[in-house]
Amino acid sequence: xxxxxxxxxxxxxxxxxxxxxxxxxxxxxxxxxxxxxxxxxxxxxxxxxxxxxxxxxxxxxxxxxxxxxxxxxxxxxxxxxxxxxxxxxxxxxxxxxxxxxxxxxxxxxxxxxxxxxxxxxxxxxxxxxxxxxxxxxxxxxxxxxxxxxxxxxxxxxxxxxxxxxxxxxxxxxxxxxxxxxxxxxxxxxxxxxxxxxxxxxxxxxxxxxxxxxxxxxxxxxxxxxxxxxxxxxxxxxxxxxxxxxxxxxxxxxxxxxxxxxxxxxxxxxxxxxxxxxxxxxxxxxxxxxxxxxxxxxxxxxxxxxxxxxxxxxxxxxxxxxxxxxxxxxxxxxxxxxxxxxxxxxxxxxxxxxxxxxxxxxxxxxxxxxxxxxxxxxxxxxxxxxxxxxxxxxxxxxxxxxxxxxxx
Length: 407
Prior knowledge:
Blueprint: E1 28-32, H1 36-42, H2 44-52, E2 56-61, H3 67-72, E3 76-79, H4 89-106, E4 110-114, H5 116-129, E5 133-138, H6 143-146, H7 150-167, E6 171-174, H8 177-185, E7 193-196, E8 218-222, H9 231-244, E9 249-253, H10 266-275, E10 279-282, H11 287-293, E11 296-299, H12 309-316, E12 321-324, H13 329-332, E13 339-342, H14 347-359, H15 361-378, H16 381-395
Helix pairs in contact: 2-16, 4-5, 5-7, 9-14, 12-15
């Protein structure tokens, strides 16, 4: 540790033995992700908890429209260059060297990387820069690990090699046991301290059950607008639902994802909106208000998720869930207890599940109560922050206990 940021005069960075750290060291912590959108929407509560515990927090990502939002919360934002789609080895190595240079400049005590690109580039750069404590988080394995195409298999082989090299000697946080099993079978977890923390956590005091509105039945699909999230399946199911229940409203809520090759074009979203099959509401800051109006929360994702944030928010809001029976989704959408699980990529089955819930108020309320209980017990921001600080303490003594929100 550097003495200029410690509470103990003369503390040095060579004090690697956890037992030798004083209990109140002020650390410099860097969060790195592949988008500023991700940091703002999924990791802001954790960043605030680290800051409230007395540490300096820097949020780093390619610069986007959420930089200002992050800075308005009082955090330093560090722009980085990171291609989200590149596979050129020279470009990837260049990204590692840039992360090494950044970490040599910032001299963090602990780094926490989110998303696979940030995990690979950040970990290799952090090791070369001599960062003492490296924590990685993989929130779902995505298309490369779930698709059976030749392209996906080739991409998967490259990711496995990169993860083996980058994760060795670090702490790794996974969100569901399916991902843990897949990575273990691939030999990626050898020499890795792995931890299971389900989801990124939601504020269960912000997302609370509200009485259903008396307006038209509303189904909310909230996510980035990516094909892999099941957008086409949702739209096709919406057409079937509206033929049976013309008053129903099925809303896509979320931004386009420019720079992501799997993004649904904005023109397509607008065309669907104009057709009346679905409504596209775009990005919303007030998701608690959106969910209070919803009768059902739906995510028909078709690729490996961590634990989807929108399903946790929907559960905390006391709304029944409809999701696909895939890793991550089934952690929070427990069939006939918190919602209904359906086969991926099947609009007819999805429409049937949505109609079953829209027609049965008692079933909605029963599943909604179960969803709220599960969100409170296992997916609250309080629980996730506490578990994440436990991981921090395994790699960097002195981080202390987080000031937690009230239970």
